[in-house]
Design a protein that fits this description.
The structure holds two protein chains of two kinds. Chain A is built from 14 helices and no strands. By secondary structure, chain A is mostly helical. In chain A, 47% of the residues are buried. The two termini of chain B are 35 Å apart. Classes of the chains: A mainly alpha, B mainly alpha. Chain A: This is Sulfate transport system permease protein CysW.
């Protein structure tokens, strides 16, 4: 027993401590994270393949599932570029200026992270819905936003708005203006300076933000659920499909969609880790 | 020379001042107008009606469940988050890297997937639920399930806010305390905890705020029974489904006001934390 403990302690890299404390703390951490995260995560894969590989492939052929995939990708294609553009613009507008209310503005940009997704969706319904402020105007022009993809896109943009901005702003503050001023002195115009000097030096933080934006945009449930009406095969993204299939007792089909989303989040985590290694920064969450 | 530098940076800024305009237009369209739409809708109701809708028994019960369980989840993660952050910064063990990246999973995994798999694993016949069911405790479709989902989605916050603070902590101080005869628990309470406390509280507040607003994972694992395990965001959703816009708006405004207050608190805690750690 003593030898065992000693060996464990050496694995743990704790030599001078005479207590079992490190081992106990590692055990508690593993148990907590295991019960709450790791086992449930493993369950997604096991359930998706509960009818075997052929069952999984058959489920992938489900017409409504494929429609959900298409719509999910559409959400990403719309919201990621727009929010990236916003993040860059906000960074250039804010990062290098000192003005009263700067920290307030930074908090305002972060607001979508603290607003409940359901409340975000509610706001969009109150604005664009049939009984909303712009409802009559939209109806008379035959534009449908709520219960259709434009509203879902607005909801997705809302919830994933801050990621790029909050990654690029500190980066831009950090790198300073020396290189840009040098480029300017050498005759580069504003856009040349931007493309050749500024953008290369913020590209990793921007990519980090883009990865997080994409993950959130493809995975959003609450806000999209409120504005979409979740009409199967029409206004259902993958996360909505997961819930609907589960409610219809099509558990394996539900887990098939869940595994696709889980795959996206695994890719997200890998990219996140790679980018963190490259930028040498700590893992941050929002 | 003294003239050149300011003029250079100034032309740079004016050339890119589209960025300033774009930022404000985007914020206005995406963020400000929807928020104003919500408050205007609330304000269009008579004051008495607002009060009546905001404090109807089913809503009050939903606030209690939402805030109570969110606080419990955030507190649990406060305790375990500090332990996990400590383990990640001080010890080495096989598979640590993998373990580390699992911590971020709640942040990357769509909430619907989290709700689905937690509901399965913790159901009476699930991998974990089957061992708890014999004790007469049902987790899925009860308040326990709601708590579990909230613990899941707010788990990373404390870990990730405390980790950098623990890395900065000087080991010498701990060693000095130990060599002066302090027990491990004394060292923890007197030497380690004080400098990381603002960070812990900021992480707890962030987790709390996230849990209060959570919808996707909770709606799947909860029984959504009024006066039992129905949370406020689900109540808003149901009100909207019944085309009760006034009810949804008022309860939504309560949650939004709460978000603004907690955002202020988190900012204050973060300022305190960064002042504390210089």
């Amino acid at each position: 027993m003593v030898a065992f403990v000693k060996a464990r302690r050496q694995i743990a890299g704790v030599k001078e401590s005479k207590s079992l404390l490190p081992l106990a703390l590692i055990g508690i951490s593993l148990l907590y994270v295991g019960l709450i995260i790791i086992i449930p995560a493993a369950n997604v894969a096991v359930q998706a393949f509960s009818e075997g590989l052929s069952g999984f492939i058959k489920n992938l052929g489900d017409r409504n599932l494929q429609e959900a995939i298409r719509l999910t990708l559409l959400m990403g294609v719309i919201s990621v570029p727009l929010n990236t553009l916003f993040g860059l613009a906000a960074a250039f507008a804010i990062a290098r200026k000192q003005f009263p209310g700067k920290s307030l503005l930074l908090s305002v940009i972060d607001l979508p992270f603290s607003i409940s997704p359901v409340v975000a969706g509610l706001m969009i319904v109150l604005l664009y819905g049939r009984n909303g402020w712009l409802g009559p105007l939209l109806e008379s022009n035959d534009i449908k936003i709520i219960f259709a993809w434009p509203g879902m896109a607005l909801a997705t943009i809302f919830v994933s708005m801050p990621f790029v901005a909050r990654e690029v702003i500190p980066n831009l503050e950090e790198i300073g203006t020396d290189a840009e001023e040098a480029a300017s002195t050498l005759g580069a115009n504003g856009w040349q300076t931007f493309w050749r000097v500024t953008l290369p030096s913020i590209k990793w933080s921007m990519l980090y933000g883009v990865v997080l934006t994409t993950a959130r945009a493809l995975g959003e449930f609450g806000a999209v659920s409120v504005v979409s009406g979740s009409i199967t095969g029409k206004t259902q993204t993958l996360p909505l499909f997961v819930e609907e299939a589960y409610k219809q007792y099509q558990t394996t089909l539900s887990y098939t969609a869940a595994l696709l989303l889980g795959g996206i989040s695994l890719v997200t985590l890998v990219l996140k880790a790679l980018l963190e290694a490259r930028t040498g920064r700590q893992s941050r969450i929002h | 020379m003294s003239l050149r530098l300011p003029s250079l940076s100034f032309t740079w800024l004016t050339r890119l001042s589209w960025s300033w305009r774009f930022t404000w237009v985007y914020l206005t369209l995406i963020l400000f107008i929807p928020i104003i739409a919500l408050f205007l809708k609330s304000a269009s109701l008579p004051l008495g009606r607002i009060w009546e809708l905001a404090t109807q028994p089913v809503a009050v019960a939903a606030y209690e469940v939402t805030f109570g369980l969110s606080l419990a989840a955030a507190a649990l993660n406060g305790v375990f988050g500090v332990i996990i952050a400590w383990v990640l910064t001080r010890y080495d063990f096989p598979g640590k890297k993998l373990f580390d990246s699992f911590i971020d999973l709640p942040f990357a995994l769509p909430t619907a997937v989290a709700g689905l798999t937690l509901a399965t694993v913790y159901s009476d016949k699930g991998w974990i639920g089957q061992f708890i069911a014999p004790f007469g405790v049902q987790i899925a479709f009860t308040r326990w399930g709601v708590l579990l989902a909230m613990v899941f989605i707010s788990l990373p916050f404390v870990v990730r806010t405390v980790e950098p603070l623990l890395l900065e902590l000087e080991v010498e101080a701990e060693e000095a305390a130990a060599s002066l005869g302090a027990s491990p628990s004394e060292t923890f309470w007197r030497v380690i905890l004080p400098p990381i406390l603002p960070g812990v509280l900021a992480g707890v507040a962030q987790g709390f705020s996230r849990a209060v607003g959570e919808f996707g994972s909770v709606v799947i694992i909860s029984g959504n029974l009024p006066f039992d395990d129905l949370i406020a965001p689900v109540l808003i959703f149901e009100r909207l489904e019944q085309y009760d816009y006034a009810g949804a708006t008022v309860i939504g405004s309560v949650l939004l006001l709460f978000s603004l207050v907690i955002l202020f608190v988190i900012n204050a805690l973060q300022n305190w934390s960064s002042r504390y750690n210089g």
